[in-house]
Amino acid sequence: MILEARRLGHCYVGGVEALRDLDLAVPRGQRLAILGPNGAGKTTLLLHLNGTLRPKSGQVLLDGRAVGYDRASLNSWRRRVGLVLQEPDDQLFAATVFEDVSFGPLNLGLSEAEARLRVEEALEALRITALAERPTHMLSFGQKKRVAIAGAVAMRPEVLLLDEPSAGLDSMGTAHLLAALDQLRQAGTTLVFTTHDVDLAWSWADQVALFHQGGVACQGSAESLLSDRAALAAAHLKMPMALALGLKARQLGLLAADQSLPRGRSESLALLDRLTPPGQ
Amino acid sequence: MILEARRLGHCYVGGVEALRDLDLAVPRGQRLAILGPNGAGKTTLLLHLNGTLRPKSGQVLLDGRAVGYDRASLNSWRRRVGLVLQEPDDQLFAATVFEDVSFGPLNLGLSEAEARLRVEEALEALRITALAERPTHMLSFGQKKRVAIAGAVAMRPEVLLLDEPSAGLDSMGTAHLLAALDQLRQAGTTLVFTTHDVDLAWSWADQVALFHQGGVACQGSAESLLSDRAALAAAHLKMPMALALGLKARQLGLLAADQSLPRGRSESLALLDRLTPPGQ
Amino acid sequence: MIEADRLAHASRWRRLPLAEKALLCLGLLILAMALPPWPGAVLVLLVASAGAVISGLTLPTWLRLLAPPCFFILTGAATLLVQVSADGIGLAADGGIQAGLLLSRALAAVAALLLLTVTTPMAELVQGLRRLGLPVELAEVTMTTYRFIFILQDTASAMHASQMARLGGDGWRRRIRSAGLLAAALLPRALDQARRLEMGLLARGFDGSLRTLMPAQRVRPWRLAVIAGGLALMAGLSLWI
Amino acid sequence: MHIMEGFLPAGHALAWSAVSAPLVVVGAMRLRKILRDRPEARLTLAAAGAFAFVLSALKLPSVTGSCSHPTGTGLGAMAVGPAATSVIGTIVLLFQALLLAHGGLTTLGANVFSMAIAGPWIAFGVWKLAGKLGAPMGLAIFLGATLGDLGTYVVTSFQLALAFPDAVSGFGGAFAKFATIFAITQIPLAIAEGLLTVVVMNALAGR
């Protein structure tokens, strides 16, 4: 486990309990979806996972060791765990893309030359090198989102936390973003993201944690957890369409047990095409 | 047709063409989805449909008559066509929900008693009567969204324009909102909404207009249009899962031609359950 | 959307070093102020307009940008046409000439400054001020202000559209009230935006300073010399005439 | 009431810059100290500045038919105090000059004096005084904002009259001329700004 939360508790100023005895384990190199309804405290959890918020109770562990909240600990924590908020305007402040992405690397104390290299690398990874000189305020929402991610990636985090990465993106924007993130994962970055969308969790996560009433109700592989009707119902969620279809296809003998289940819309539609009328 | 746009053209100050020769017809009493990718100009179109923006070319017709842009025309136009933008925070000004919803009715020049009646009616319609005395800044996102809609509904518009009504809502929030809007439609309100989500368009619209490159590529009934693979592909869209499943079920003889196709996730999952392995 | 800002980012001169553009434009501004309006101001106006067209603006766009300040200058200059004496108000003897001279000087100065702003993005201007000794904290506040302006402008225009849709613009009283409500709703939004940005920046290692990398520019001395020479030529020419 | 770029003769432009500069520099030094102690105040100040800029672009109806905009100085002075308003106001005036060609660099000193120094202090003084004299809060706000706005207009007329004295009646006649011409738009506008500020302050208090 690269990152863990143990019995985390947090109250907001109003006394509203956002997190209660929350346990979460982030396995290295995987994509973990934190799935739950809006306003349940998923964002609060992410803010705890990189030390931006300090828990009222419980602790966060990096590589099995509890992290402190002094300046030096926070500094090294944030080097290793990057955070991308849902709203890109909450993270972008500089006038141009290049300048903005360079903020994180310079905060790491890198030299200008090194920082420049990191920025170029991050822009490359998110495929936005062409936007480098563009003013931040002239970007589309999807472009801003990528710049915000590049800003975190330029710090070369081992874990990248993403709050609702697909929110506000249309299907093509989401597909492009996930492709870029996939590349990061292949390079070894652990990805944790929150979502309220079961279809997204199924299409893209290796592991899923069901977030319910301030805690993690259960955590497991995407397939085992999202096909568990009882667990889903308890969290007021429904099964992803693609997974339901895939399970049905297995049951119908159209998909062998060792063949992979459809994850996205295209695969599902293709599988649907293979269903044949009786007697054919 | 209660509302029409004919050969509408609009350029932004930057010279970017947002709308080009756009034709759209809104049939009375129906739910029309304007479906297209983000940043394509869907919001700009809505702003033209209630006279907030004035087109560079073409015209907007109400009940078959072109509307003017003088003060009196705009006034009666906006009484008849309400607008709800995507971000509820941009639409709530007053301290409490009740005050905010009364903004429109008071501007109609109604007496206080009448305005009060309208407000109560609108809160009722959106099922937020219990929130009346709450300060607007303490509401959840979903609640704010409903208050914003109530603010428009309190003016008793014949047509209600909604920009991405489900954006930012989770599946339960969306379901609640759509149920409230359904009630308005049953009371006779024509609903026009933009979305980039084919599944939402299929689950909730009677008619769909495909928005592509600043114009409406085609418009028709939800079923005919969303099952037209060529039209969808031209607009870079994929078929809604529920529709694809329903069409397949018809082909398999599981669904008679006169039985209605599944629209939402629950119906689809139920239909999927009815697929039987061969030989049973 | 602020037009001068958009044009600056699309300008053909966008990549020229700040020093060259600043020398040219501020030099023209000083000439406009220092030289006799005829023919100095007229020369400055012509050179600035030529510069604008060369940098990629169309003439109608340039004139459209000049029009609003021109209108304000006209209303001010009009007062020079009349004179007030014990007998009452009359036409000033050389009022027309005075107003004309003032108009041409101000217009030339506006054109010189405008040429700078339609060719140079704000980030570079503030970077220049920074090099001239603007304290780093204030430069950071200025740049963040610039960034916030665009966010708040989008919010304000959505708020405005929403108010108009609910007939908040009908009549003088309602417009005052709507404008007041808008301002009152916008201020907490602005402060909230600041708070959320702080949170977002903390996650990126914000330690109090907002340092970023600026694209490097190389100044070519010979071009500076050419610009300075041109300015000197203009000065000599107009003083000689 | 912005004085446009190049409108003031060079001598006047320099003189007003010399008058305003020390006041702004003192404000800026104090601000630097605050920013060192509380780095996050950068973001709050930036938000306030952007708010003032966007507010000044709000179109207000005015009697002469031309649209004009509020100065926001009264609101700033009452909300964050006149000294901070001076620094934020200077930044906003710089942006208005550069982004909107409204005002100018050579006239920045004069405009800072009328709109970022005189206006806020007048508004603040009137508001406090009216409150002490027992005026209801709404009236005190209205008087402060209205007279702050009118104050900037009187100072601007004064600045212009100094620069362009009347050929016959000198400074006095010129002041009368400028004051009269601008009164047409500025008096209704000042009243509008006063009302607007009352609405804003009430709405903010209600939150």
TrEMBL record, chains A, B:
It is found in: Cell membrane. GO terms for molecular function: ATP binding. InterPro entries: AAA+_ATPase (IPR003593), ABC_transporter-like_ATP-bd (IPR003439), ABC_transporter-like_CS (IPR017871), ABC_transpr_CbiO/EcfA_su (IPR015856), Co_trans_ATP-bd (IPR005876), ECF_ABC_transporter_ATP-bd (IPR050095), P-loop_NTPase (IPR027417). It is a peripheral membrane protein. Residues 3-238 form the ABC transporter domain. It comes from the Bacteria. Part of an ABC transporter complex. Responsible for energy coupling to the transport system. CDD domains: ABC_cobalt_CbiO_domain1. Its main location: membrane. Keywords: ATP-binding, Cell membrane, Membrane, Nucleotide-binding, Translocase, Transport. It comes from Magnetospirillum sulfuroxidans. Belongs to the ABC transporter superfamily. SUPFAM superfamilies: P-loop containing nucleoside triphosphate hydrolases. SMART domains: AAA. This is ABC transporter ATP-binding protein.
Automatic annotation (TrEMBL), chain C:
The keyword Transmembrane applies. It comes from the Bacteria. It is a multi-pass membrane protein. Belongs to the CbiQ family. Keywords: Cell membrane, Membrane, Transmembrane, Transmembrane helix. CDD domains: EcfT (cd16914). The lineage of its organism: Bacteria, Pseudomonadati, Pseudomonadota, Alphaproteobacteria, Rhodospirillales. The chain crosses the membrane at residues 16-35, 41-59, 66-86, 106-126, 221-240. This is Cobalt ECF transporter T component CbiQ. The keyword Membrane applies. Its main location: membrane. It is found in: Cell membrane. Pfam families: CbiQ (PF02361). InterPro entries: ABC/ECF_trnsptr_transmembrane (IPR003339), Cobalt_transport_CbiQ (IPR052770), ECF_CbiQ (IPR012809).
